[in-house]
Design a protein that fits this description.
3 strands, single chain, elongated, mainly alpha, three-stranded antiparallel beta sheet, Arc Repressor Mutant, subunit A
Length: 107
Amino acid sequence: MALLAGKWALPILTELARGPVRNNALLRRIEGVSQKVLTQNLRDLERSGLIARIDHGTVPPNVEYRLTALGHSLDRTLVGLDRWAERHQAALAEARAQHDLRRVETE
């Protein structure tokens, strides 16, 4: 869970779920991420077996990243979580509003 709790892992996985992507394309698609942070996250995700780094052995270097089978299985789970959040968005907002109201009343 710690791997996925970071700010950038989910946006990276979401982009890779669309198909293999080169590093610079990921950098352009994920707004706000630095090259250093992107590289570190890619290494962590690769180390965990969620993505694969494919080096085409060309000059200049042509490296792309793709989801592994394990990464695809996580993507299916994340899609389900996203759908749950969409279905329950109103209930979550109402619960937060009620909680905040009770908190203000007790202060």
